[in-house]
Write a structure and sequence with these properties.
The chain is an all-beta fold. The protein has a single domain, classed as SH3 type barrels, CATH 2.30.30.30. The protein is 0% helix and 45% strand. A six-stranded antiparallel sheet has the order 6-3-2-1-7-8, with no helix packed on it. The protein has a two-stranded antiparallel ribbon with strand order 4-5. The protein has a two-stranded antiparallel ribbon with strand order 9-10. The protein starts with 8 loop residues before the first strand and ends in an 8-residue tail after the last strand.
């Protein structure tokens, strides 16, 4: 089971975007996550007149390491650590360590 999943709301804990919140758009296998609106970079795109694509400078979202984000807890209003526990029916779920609230 993964600590972070697509669609989770996270808060950035380190780097130039520290304190910003966003949803995870994708989780990569190398331990990085792409968070919506965080770690933006400029990319120079070449146009293709045959396909009708204009060239220019576009903003793209770059991945950030998973250790630099924490799951956002709506109840407390800040990022918190998570743990895992197994329910009585054998299902493994994630939960916030501070208050024991289940995520899944």
């Amino acid at each position: 089971m993964q600590r972070l999943k697509k669609g989770d709301e996270v808060i950035v804990t380190a780097g130039k975007d520290k304190g910003r919140r966003g949803k995870i758009m994708s989780v990569q296998t190398n331990g990085r996550v792409v968070v919506e609106g965080v770690n933006m970079a400029k990319k120079h795109k070449r146009g293709n007149p045959n396909a009708g694509v204009e060239g220019g400078i576009v903003d793209i979202t770059m991945p950030i390491h998973a250790s630099n984000v924490m799951l956002f807890n709506e109840a407390s209003g800040k990022g918190e650590r998570i743990g895992y526990k197994t329910l009585d029916n054998g299902k493994k779920v994630r939960y916030f360590r501070s208050n024991g609230e289940s995520l899944d």
